[in-house]
Every structure is written in C-alpha cells, then in structure tokens.
C-alpha cells in the first residue's frame, strides 16, 4: 500500500512520531469496519436468499400440495361420479332385471308357481313315504351281502343260460323278420291276434245271457266257449302290473303239476321241466314257444295266416304310474336285487340309470334289448308282437274287468282276488310334478305307444264278446265278491269303451 516505509521515529529530533501510529490504527479500523459491513451485507443477502428460497419452496410445496389436493379431490370426485354412475347403472340393471323378472312372473307366474308347489308337495310326499329316511343307502340289505361261493355245476348252468339267451334272441329276431316279410305278401292285414275270426258267433241275450252269467262252466271247453285258447298259456308278467294277484288266480285254476311261476326267465336247467307245463306265468322273456315247438310242433293248431300260433297273454299298465310304482317297490323290498340302486337315487335320478324305468314293458313284449333303454327295433318288435302274437291283452287300471275278460280266453272259474305285493311306501301319481311326469313319458315313449295299442285291443276284445254281455258279467262279479256294492244294471244299458290316456 505504501511505497515508502514509514518510520516510527522523527529523524530530526530522535523522538517517536505518534501521528503515524495513529494513522495506522485509523487505517486498520477503517478496514475492519469495511470488512464488518461487507460481512453484514453478505449475511443479510444470504438470509434474504434463504428466506426467498424457503418461501419459494414452501409456496411450491403448497402449490404441489394444493395441486395434489386438487387432483385428489378431482380423482375423488371422478371416483364418486364413476361410483355414482356404476351405482346408477347397477340400479338400472337391477330395475331392468326386476322388470324382466316381473315380466317373466307375469308371463309364467302360474306355471312356475304350479311347478314350485308341485315339487314342494312331491318332496313332502317322498319324505312321508320314506318315513324320514335318507335317500342314501345306509340300511343293511340282503342284496349287498357277500355272495356264497358257486359250485362248478352252478357256474356251468349260468354259462349255458347266457348262451341260451343269445340263441333265443337270435331266433326271436329271425321270426320277426320272417313275419314282416310274410305280412307284405298277404292281401289283407290279419289284424289283432286276440280278435278271433268267429263269423258265426253272437253274444247271448235274454235268458241265455242270464244263465251264462250265473253258471260259467261253459267257458271250460272250446265247444262251449269259442274264445278258449289252446294250451300252453304263456303269460308275460310285467313288473308292477298287478301280476302277483293274477299269478295266484292262475295257480288256483290250474293243476299243480301243470303250472309254474317264474320270477325270472327260466334258466337252461329249468327249461326242460317248463316244457311239461300247461300254464307258464312270470317275469319271462318272449320266445318260450320255440322250446314247446321243438318238443312237440303239433301241440297247438297252426295259425291260418302263418303267424305265431301260441297263446301269449299279458296285462299292461299306464307307463308313468308303473314306473313310479316300480321305483318305490324296489326301495321297500330289501331282498330285491335292485333295492340298493333305488335306495341310492331319488326318482328323478333313478329313471336315468335304471333299465326298469325305461320301456320295460316293451322290452319284455319284444324279447330283445334287455340292456337297452329303448330303440326303434324294440319299438317295431314290441308293437308287432302285441298286435300279431298276443291272444289276450288286459289293462291293469281295469283289473276286475280284465279278469272277467281273461276268463273267456282261459276258462278260469275262480277269479276272486285280493291285492298282494302292493307298494306301501310310495308317492301317488297326482303328487308327481308335471315336468317329471313329462320326462318319464318321454323316456318311456315305446311303452306309451304300446299302452295305447293295448287299450284299443282291450276295447275290441270286449266288443267281440259283446259289451252288454260283458257288462252283466262284470256287475255279477262285483256283486258276488265285492260286498254287494255293485248291482247288475239293466240289460239294455251298454258300457262305453275305455278311453285312451292323453299324452
């Protein structure tokens, strides 16, 4: 700062110069003041900058927070709006659904309410019939006991029985095809086999009628009874078609050594003794006539049209009622081989898995398709046999009348009966819901067609015998055996044919 060193002493007199010292202190003081002032200004500037920065940051943070809050508020508002839209949409959908439901209720309310009521009543009726037991199979059953070991003879007999079954199936099918070809060559259709060609027959009237109603021994021979069928009489008993009651009538009216009741188709070992009988009754397959014909082809007179000449008989039942009755019979009978299957399924399930719930009448009449629920071949053969082979067809729902009718074809005198083997734990048909009834009808489509034909045959049989004569016989039977409840009507009154069930 200085070009010349300052001396602290005065050279002239040798004394110290105090003015220089003072000057130096002043200079130092000024410098210190300047530094202090600058430091203060810098500090103040920094404080201002920090304040400004903090204010800016705070303001930016506040702005961000405000923006975030605004965004959140906007999002919340959007969400609220969306939720409101969704709620409104759901409400609209609910309203639409309610409108549809209301419309459906208006359109189908009666039908739906009826079905709901029917299913509820059906459920209550089933619970009552089952006495509170579960449908699951929990009871001890003879059907599920461990089978006893079979002897070699039993095993061989079963093998031969299965072989005989296949051979018989083939013979039945061949006979059917041959008869179809034969019918094509005939000039006119022979009609129902049970409607006999009797141009000289006239139904009795007056005193003759009264005498024949009182004394029925005239039915025992072909000479006095033109409807009497030649033996053997082969009666195919369809399960749950009043056959057990009818079986007792066959037994009472036939010699003991000339009657046999089979609960299933005779085995190979039983066939020989069966051929010695005059009356065969039971759960048998169509086709036993082949063995009779093999044994003695002249035993039965030939059919004038070349068709089956043997005296097959049966009684059919309304298909829906029969299926329902059969199901509950299997459930209540612990010794029945199908008891477990029925116990493990309710009625709706059972008809889908059990052959007995699907066209069983047709399968027994045709002699084929034991493993099949129903097909066109079974349909064709069943209707063919019922029309051209069966010489007597009764109706379970007209059991008393059918017994009187049977007496003309069999000559039976003692036809009084009592109900046996009736189901005790079952739901009546009127408790079955309409949709389940429809499903049973659809599954038993062949039996439905067969039953309609049976009704037509039944009425035509009565017409040929004479409806007035027949009515007098029925009235006398009821008056004699049913506690005198029915009185013989006026001889001029006629009976109306049994109407077919509408499906």
Write up what this structure looks like:
- The chain is elongated and about 185 Å long.
- Helix content is 56%, strand content 5%.
- It is mainly alpha-helical and 503 residues long.
- Residues 1-16, 52-69, 134-143 and 485-495 have low confidence and may be disordered.
- The termini are far apart.
- α5 links the parallel β2 and β3 (279-282).
- It has a five-stranded parallel sheet, sandwiched between helices.
Task: Give a short summary of the structure.
This protein is mainly alpha-helical.
Index terms:
15 helices; mainly alpha; five-stranded parallel sheet; 56% helix; 503 residues; 5% strand
| Strand order, sheet with most strands | 2-3-1-4-5
Number of helices in the DSSP assignment: 15
User: Could you state the order of secondary-structure elements as H and E?
Assistant: HHHEHEHEHEHHHHHEHHHH
Instruction: Kindly report the average pLDDT value.
Output: 79
Assembly type of the shown chains? single chain
Please state the overall shape, judged from the principal axes of the Cα atoms: elongated
Taking the sheet with the most strands, its summary is:
5 strands, parallel
| Low-confidence segments | 1-16, 52-69, 134-143, 485-495
Q: How far from one another are the termini? A: 135 Å
Instruction: Output the radius of gyration.
Output: 52 Å
Range of helix content: 55-70%
Which band does the percent of strand residues land in?
under 5%
Structural class: mainly alpha
| Number of strand elements | 5
């Amino acid at each position: 700062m200085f070009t010349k060193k300052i001396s602290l002493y005065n050279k002239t007199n040798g004394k110290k110069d105090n003015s220089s010292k003072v000057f130096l202190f002043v200079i130092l003081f000024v410098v210190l003041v300047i530094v202090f002032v600058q430091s203060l200004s810098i500090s103040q500037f920094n404080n201002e900058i920090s304040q400004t920065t903090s204010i800016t940051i705070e303001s930016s943070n506040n702005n961000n927070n405000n923006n975030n809050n605004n965004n959140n508020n906007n999002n919340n508002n959007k969400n609220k709006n969306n939720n409101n839209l969704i709620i409104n949409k759901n409400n609209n959908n609910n309203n639409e659904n309610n409108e549809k439901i209301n419309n459906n209720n208006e359109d189908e309310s009666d039908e739906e309410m009826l079905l709901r009521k029917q299913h509820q009543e059906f459920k209550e009726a089933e619970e009552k019939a089952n006495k509170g037991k579960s449908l699951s199979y929990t009871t001890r059953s003879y059907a599920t006991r461990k089978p006893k070991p079979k002897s070699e003879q039993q095993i061989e007999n079963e093998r031969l029985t299965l072989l005989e079954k296949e051979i018989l199936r083939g013979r039945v099918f061949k006979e059917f095809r041959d008869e179809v070809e034969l019918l094509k060559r005939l000039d006119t259709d022979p009609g129902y086999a049970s409607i006999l060609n009797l141009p000289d027959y006239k139904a009795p009237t007056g005193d003759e009628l009264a005498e024949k109603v009182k004394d029925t021994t005239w039915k025992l021979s072909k000479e006095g009874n033109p409807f009497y069928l030649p033996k053997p009489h082969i009666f195919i008993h369809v399960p749950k078609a009043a056959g057990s009651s009818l079986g007792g009538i066959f037994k009472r009216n036939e010699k003991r050594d000339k009657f046999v009741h089979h609960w299933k188709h005779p085995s190979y070992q039983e066939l020989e003794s069966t051929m010695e009988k005059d009356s065969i009754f039971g759960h048998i397959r169509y086709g036993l006539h082949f063995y009779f014909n093999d044994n003695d082809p002249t035993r039965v007179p030939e059919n004038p049209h070349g068709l089956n000449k043997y005296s097959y008989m049966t009684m059919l039942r309304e298909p829906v009622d029969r299926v329902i009755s059969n199901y509950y019979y299997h459930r209540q009978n612990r010794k029945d081989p199908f008891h477990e299957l029925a116990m493990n399924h309710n009625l709706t399930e059972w008809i889908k898995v059990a052959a007995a719930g699907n066209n069983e009448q047709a399968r027994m009449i045709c002699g084929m398709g034991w493993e099949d629920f129903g097909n066109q071949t079974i349909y064709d053969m069943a209707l063919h046999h019922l029309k051209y082979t069966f010489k007597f067809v009764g109706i379970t729902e007209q059991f008393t009348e059918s017994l009187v009718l049977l007496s003309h074809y069999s000559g039976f005198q003692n036809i009084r009966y009592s109900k046996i083997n009736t189901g005790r734990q079952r739901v009546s048909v009127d408790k079955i819901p309409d949709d389940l009834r429809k499903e049973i009808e659809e599954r038993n489509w062949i039996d439905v067609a067969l039953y309609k034909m049976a009704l037509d045959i039944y009425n035509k049989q009565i017409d040929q015998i004479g409806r007035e004569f027949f009515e007098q016989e029925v009235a006398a039977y009821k008056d004699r055996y049913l506690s005198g409840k029915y009185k013989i009507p006026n001889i001029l009154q006629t009976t109306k044919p049994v109407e077919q069930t509408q499906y």
